[in-house]
Amino acid sequence: MASGQPAAVVLGTDLSARCDRPLDRAAQLAGEWNAELVALHVLEGPQEPDLALRWSTDEDAGDADILARRELMRELAGLEVRASLRIARGDVADAIRGAAEESGAGLIVTGMARSEVLGRFLPGSNVERLARMDTPPLLVVRNRVRGPYRRVVVATDFSMPSCRALQQALAFLPGREAELFHSHLSPMGIQPDEAATQSIRQGIERSEYAAFLDACPVPEAAGQSLRLTVTFGPLETTLTRHVRENDVDLVVMGTQGRSGLGGILLGSTAARMLDWLPCDMLIVHR
């Protein structure tokens, strides 16, 4: 079973405006859970042109620490949550994972890294690297905070990783409207007709879905209210359309799922979905 609500939440921030939304969401969740918010900034190099020629000395590195700490304190000022700040150096993804381990955090929160020209998620970015690492659940925030998460969709291929994703979603957000979403990809990508679609959907509900629920223990109340949506086609298009049409706040995905035609929850797919989904995304690794 997944662990309950986290005692600590790590926020990875580069102190830019694009991290305002992750900060707001991390603070909202920390407040909801009465958890500590650990804000981490990783110094990779000089942030201002006048520091570029002086970056290598210990004295100037200390100045950078002070400036970053001061800016981080301003970011946290006024938040009605227990908060602490950390400054680290080196590789960003490794530093965030290390901060989560040291603080015992049950969630990492970060924002999107996107190409300003193409408007797309950047492959090889720190967010993508975190999505592929074995870390606590990773929440990638895209949207403004308009309140607690309400509608939650868990993508499933009926594997154990998607079971863990479901359990984690229910543990983090009890009482929310939760939905399992399965996208069936037919052999050769052929779209079945209406009669075949209904037959496939009923077969999935009677066999794979029923076996999944038997093997995936969840609280009784949550199990009774859980519903399954089965669609046909590539996950990127079907889930994105479903999110837009149904005002979904959060999509939850597991990693290391099945391979082959039925597999949708491989780590690479979870990373690729970051570029498609118009909502926040929670990636559950373990």
Question: Explain this structure to me?
Answer:
The chain is of the alpha/beta class and 286 residues long. The protein is 39% helix and 20% strand. The chain has two domains: 8-141, 3-Layer(aba) Sandwich (Rossmann fold), CATH 3.40.50.620; 151-284, HUPs (Rossmann fold, 3-Layer(aba) Sandwich). It has helices spanning 20-33, 58-76, 92-103, 126-132, 160-172, 194-215, 220-225, 235-246, 267-273; strands at 8-12, 36-43, 83-89, 107-111, 138-141, 151-155, 177-184, 227-232, 250-254, 280-284. It has a ten-stranded mixed β-sheet, with helices on both faces. Helix 9 (267-273) links the parallel strand 9 (250-254) and strand 10. Mean pLDDT is 81; it is low at 50-56, 115-123 and 257-266.
Give the SSE layout.
Elements: E1 8-12, H1 20-33, E2 36-43, H2 58-76, E3 83-89, H3 92-103, E4 107-111, H4 126-132, E5 138-141, E6 151-155, H5 160-172, E7 177-184, H6 194-215, H7 220-225, E8 227-232, H8 235-246, E9 250-254, H9 267-273, E10 280-284
Parallel strand pairs: 1-2, 1-4, 2-3, 4-5, 6-7, 6-9, 7-8, 9-10
Antiparallel strand pairs: 5-10
Helix pairs in contact: 3-4
Please provide a brief summary of the model:
The chain is an alpha/beta fold and 286 residues long. The chain has nine helices and ten strands.
What would you report as the Rg, rounded to the nearest angstrom? 20 Å
Query: How many β-strands, per DSSP?
Result: 10
Number of helices: 9
Give, in spatial order, the strands making up the sheet with the most strands: 3-2-1-4-5-10-9-6-7-8
End-to-end CA span: 10 Å
Order of helices and strands: EHEHEHEHEEHEHHEHEHE
For the residues shown, what is the average pLDDT? 81
Q: Give the fraction of residues assigned to helices.
A: 25-40%
Overall tally of domains: 2
How many strands, which pairing sense, and closed or not: the largest β-sheet? 10 strands, mixed
Q: Which of globular, elongated, flat, extended, rod-shaped describes the shape? A: elongated
CATH topology of the largest domain: Rossmann fold
Family: Belongs to the universal stress protein A family.
Protein name: Universal stress protein
Pfam families: Usp
Domain UspA: 9-142, 149-285
